[in-house]
Design brief:
single chain, 278 residues, two-stranded antiparallel sheet
């Protein structure tokens, strides 16, 4: 399969129980091979990687081959986080966002409307107004699923619904649609041995730039303050952006509540209360 997709013979394969796996091709290069079981998952990831790369800002692994089920990308040698790489990454992330998107919720060119964030379905339904789009297509669908799964109690869901109703007042200064990675947690940020940062596994779409930054903070990211300083130097954030972090974390927290349960539902409710109190 890898030979068919890359046109090069496989000479070695590192045993792996899941996906992705490392495969060595004839001539020496090691590549990453990832399986996408859900219909459209590989197409969404390929379109997202190419859309992010097209901005000429944040580095992403090159797509070396794919079909409807399998994706082959270049492999990066990883290193340790450092301040210089973090500052450059923040600067590049600002330029990625500034590359823009046609609309909030816009899918990458060639990507499906029915995409994914991790293993969760994510519909890229375009809209022109961020507060109403964010509520309708990013918060409420996952809130309903979390209530159905029992990871958010119906009485607590009211707090999140109240945030959605007040989004026009809570959203801060209006922003144009940004070109988002869409799933920018620490595990999707790779610190390269060459001193540069690359991002992987996007859930790319048009959105609000503060959402990517809020997700970086949600699960912790090395050198985060350096990243934010580099970002602010390139594209200062709107007044009060730190008060809106919890608002933008509602989406990934509810996704995690649906996928993993546990305390993520409680964290989402806490984030909603924080957003309401400012």
């Amino acid at each position: 399969m890898v030979s068919r997709l890359t046109g090069r013979r496989v000479t070695a394969e590192r045993a792996a129980s899941g996906s992705p796996a490392e495969v060595t091709l004839e001539g020496g290069p090691v590549v990453m091979v990832k399986r996408g079981d859900a219909p459209g998952a590989v197409r969404a990831e390929v379109a997202g990687l190419r859309w992010l790369a097209g901005a000429g800002a944040v580095r992403v692994p090159a797509v070396l081959g794919h079909d409807e089920r399998w994706l082959v990308t270049e492999r990066m040698d990883t290193g340790r986080p450092d301040a210089g790489a973090a500052s450059r990454f923040g600067h590049a992330l600002a330029h990625l966002h500034a590359a823009g998107a046609p609309e909030f919720g816009a899918a990458p060119p060639g990507g499906p409307e029915d995409a994914f964030i991790g293993r969760a379905p994510m519909r890229n339904e375009p809209g022109t107004d961020w507060p109403s789009w964010y509520a309708e297509h990013r918060v409420l669908p996952y809130l309903r699923a979390a209530v159905d799964a029992g990871t958010v109690r119906a009485g607590e869901a009211v707090v999140i619904e109240r945030v959605c109703a007040r989004l026009p007042d809570l959203a801060g200064p209006a922003e144009p649609p940004a070109r988002l990675h869409g799933d920018l947690w620490n595990g999707n940020v790779l610190w390269g041995a060459d001193g540069e940062v690359r991002v992987i596994d996007p859930a790319a779409h048009g959105g609000h730039r503060e959402t990517d930054l809020a997700m970086l903070r949600l699960f912790g990211c090395p050198e985060l303050e350096r990243i934010l300083a580099g970002y602010q130097a390139a594209a200062p954030l709107g007044d009060g952006w730190t008060r809106r972090v919890g608002l933008h974390q509602l989406f990934p927290l509810l996704v995690h509540a649906v996928l993993f349960g546990g305390g993520y539902g409680e964290q989402a409710v806490a984030a909603a209360r924080e957003a309401l109190t400012g």
